[in-house]
Write a structure and sequence with these properties.
eight-stranded antiparallel β-sheet, mainly beta, 1 helix, 225 residues
Length: 225
């Protein structure tokens, strides 16, 4: 019986040592978390699902060594944040719970680069997409305009043809290579049509993107082909 117990104990010890060794070379790029890391790693950095422990603790998604995606962060003070992250910053929907004057206080809603922006609002609604690879909406404070950037291969799309924009309210304007609508009455429906190269510049396609934004504000819309 004793021999039977020693064999798996040795195996488990070996596996634990191997696992511990693999984490030593996987860094988290936030000093508050850079002590112990368990989880997925890519090119020496925390990447994917994992847990980092330092003065503070974070468990969730990582990208290139930083919290990115959904995760739970616990500060040494006892405060916690459960929600979305981008490049190590609270960004998106989340709930921050902290102690204020001896009692719990909660900020729940939208965050932008670690700054609380207020309660959540109705998300923009995409009505139609044709030859659109991905898109992104971002609200930058109060206002009444939408600024639209057309992208290709991660850069401004400088070669589009037959661009048209129709909206249910507002006035069209251009700012550099961005297309915009100002003095909008929300909610607003916007339909954009244009012709663009594909990613390999081997053929042109007709692109269409139609969406509705409900909440007033200064909006940025990025559309990639």
């Amino acid at each position: 019986m004793s021999k039977y117990i020693k064999v798996p104990t040795f195996i488990l010890s070996f596996l634990f040592a191997s696992s511990l060794f693999s984490q030593v070379d996987c860094k988290v790029l936030m000093p508050e978390l850079d002590s112990i890391y368990y989880g997925s790693c890519k090119k020496g950095l925390a990447h994917g699902k994992g847990k980092a422990i330092g003065a503070d603790t974070y468990e969730g998604r990582f990208r290139k060594g930083l919290p990115n995606g959904y995760g739970v962060y616990k500060w040494a003070s006892g405060a916690t944040y459960k929600g979305e992250w981008i490049e190590g910053k609270r960004d998106g929907e989340g709930t921050y719970t902290f102690n204020l004057e001896g009692g719990d206080s909660v900020q729940s809603g939208l965050w932008e680069i670690n700054v609380y922006k207020g309660e959540t609002f109705d998300r923009p609604r995409v009505i139609l997409t044709e030859f659109v690879k991905r898109y992104r909406f971002r609200r930058d404070g109060d206002g009444d305009r939408i600024l639209i950037d057309l992208m290709l291969n991660g850069q401004t799309n400088r070669d589009i043809l037959d661009f048209t924009l129709i909206s249910t309210s507002g006035s069209y304007f251009e700012l550099g290579r961005s297309h915009g609508i100002e003095t909008i009455v929300f909610p607003v429906i916007v339909k954009i049509k244009y012709q663009s190269w594909n990613a390999t510049h081997s053929s042109r396609h007709d692109a269409t993107f139609e969406f509705e934004i409900f909440e007033p504000g200064n909006w940025q819309v990025e559309i990639s082909n």
